[in-house]
Design brief:
Elements (H helix, E strand, L loop, with lengths): L1 H42 L6 H37 L2 H7 L5 H42 L18 E9 L4 E9 L7 E15 L2 E15 L8 E15 L22 H24 L7 H4 L10 H5 L19 H67 L4 H27 L5 H25 L3 H8 L1
Antiparallel strand pairs: 1-2, 2-3, 3-4, 4-5
Helix pairs in contact: 1-2, 1-4, 2-4, 2-8, 2-9, 4-8, 5-8, 8-9, 8-10, 9-10
């Protein structure tokens, strides 16, 4: 009997393999298409080397792996155990007195190893891949568009020049009715050039000659700072200009020289930042403690509220010799002038304290938001990989109970579950980053809910226990 169970356990593991690989690579393909659709505008028309585009795709595959693996586990589990139940193998095991948990245990153990490997990948490989991808995105974004003139459209893609061309012959690279504005930079004077025709001749990848034919130029020169511009007019039959295209070439930067965000850091690095932010909060609180010279106290002022007080009191006592003040210290003096100065000085200190208090509160709130953001990422590096284990606990009993092992039915159930899962994860992240819930609650709530449901269903399959029995026993 034990040999039969061991053989069945191995067979169930094999049944998981093909659906898992098929679903995993299908999801990777879908996520890759989504990535290309979102970023195709940043990659086309900039003459970016194909190797850079390939590297950008490869580095972005890392986050796709973390997302696709748990989803593939759920589909594979529903298919494998659905097929197992569809063939009435579970009925045979139950009749032999075998607990269904024995056929779930090896797959569950495998999911734990998958969780460990995926968590390591998410903590060590994914941040580095995200940093390289982020650096490449920045390099591509700051790269200027290629030298792409269009008829009747101003073009300022080359520093120091603005072009306006009425007609372009793409076959011969000829330009017609050219207007060129040259800006005063790089030891060149401001100039205005008009030509009937022009011809583009490439010198190298970083230089281009523009041959202008039949035109004139207006050059604005200034002999010294205090003198007016001198306009020099020249007529030409042919004039050659050299355009520097070096700024248009793609420049690769070092990813390590760029600052890292929460998604490009390991958990250890983020926890170090969180610790430093907590210390900064303590330092901000010490600012209030040290600022005790203006700390309002009912013992000194005789009032419970202080920030609503204004200068009206001082203005009202201007024309009398003395006044009764609601502030205890002022009643000591009988001179109105001294009372006015005491009121004015007290209100000044209170306003300074209010400004300090608001500044400290704003700084603390900002640091709390940053702490929440980092802790969300720390929990996310574990909660998403742990979904591999959760989906086994949930998917195995659901697959057994549905008794359908086809891909369509498994995909349908997976779509519903995963939709709720990702919506809960995204909303939990937003709520945690807004300090409405804790990072742990935001990232782990749905995992815990699915785990509880899965454990209950496994117990129900193993023992026949039902929640209805509890209520029936109470009655």
């Amino acid at each position: 009997m034990n040999k039969y169970i061991n053989k069945l356990q191995i067979d169930l593991l094999k049944r998981h393999l093909n659906p898992f690989l098929f679903c995993f690579f299908t999801l990777m393909f879908i996520l890759l298409l989504q990535f290309l659709i979102l970023h195709i505008d940043n990659l086309i028309g900039k003459d970016i080397p194909l190797s850079i585009v390939a590297e950008l795709i490869v580095t972005n595959l890392a986050y796709m792996v973390v997302l696709a693996a748990p989803m593939a586990v759920l589909v594979a589990t529903l298919m494998a155990y659905g097929k197992f139940s569809e063939l009435n193998e579970l009925t045979a095991l139950r009749s032999s007195g075998v607990n269904p948990m024995k056929i779930i245990r090896p797959v569950l153990t495998t999911s734990v190893f998958l969780f460990i490997g995926l968590a390591w990948f998410s903590n060590n490989i994914l941040p580095e891949a995200n940093q390289k991808a982020r650096s490449l995105f920045i390099d591509i974004r700051i790269k200027k568009p290629g030298f792409d003139l269009k008829p009747n459209i101003f073009y300022d893609g080359i520093d120091g020049y603005t072009f306006l061309v009425e007609r372009i012959d793409g076959e011969s690279d000829s330009l017609f009715d050219i207007t060129l504005f040259q800006q005063p930079m790089n030891n060149k004077d401001r100039a205005y050039i008009i030509a009937e025709k022009g011809l583009l001749v490439s010198r190298s990848e970083q230089a281009l000659n523009l041959h202008l034919i039949n035109g004139y130029s207006l050059k604005f020169t200034q002999p010294n700072r205090n003198s007016d511009d001198i306009i020099e007019r020249n007529t030409f039959e042919k004039h050659v200009m050299t355009l520097d295209l070096s700024d248009l070439s793609f420049m690769r930067s070092n990813p390590e020289e760029r600052n890292r965000s929460d998604r490009t850091m390991s958990s250890k690095a983020m926890l170090v930042v969180v610790d430093s932010l907590y210390k900064e909060i303590e330092n901000q609180l010490e600012v209030l403690i040290k600022n005790n010279s203006v700390y309002p106290s009912e013992a000194y002022t005789g009032k419970q509220t202080f920030f609503s007080k204004d200068l009206a009191l001082a203005e009202n006592v201007a024309n009398i010799s003395s006044a009764n003040s609601p502030y205890i210290m002022e009643n000591i003096s009988q001179k109105a002038d001294l009372q006015r100065r005491l009121v004015s000085e007290s209100l000044r200190h209170l306003r300074e304290y209010k400004s300090t208090l608001e500044s400290v509160n704003a700084n603390i709130e900002w640091r709390k938001l940053r702490i929440a953001g980092y802790l969300v990422e720390v929990h996310k590096k574990l909660s998403i990989p742990f979904a591999c284990v959760v989906f086994i606990l949930f998917g195995a009993p659901v697959g057994i109970m549905t008794k359908r092992g086809n891909f369509g039915f498994a995909a349908l159930i997976s779509t519903v579950v995963l939709t709720f899962y990702w919506v809960a994860l995204i909303q939990g992240e937003k709520l945690a980053e807004r300090l409405i819930v804790s990072p742990f609650t935001g990232m782990w709530t749905f995992n815990i809910v699915l785990t509880i449901i899965g454990v209950y269903l496994i117990i129900h399959l193993s023992t026949g226990f039902s929640i209805k029995e509890i209520f029936e026993n109470r009655d």
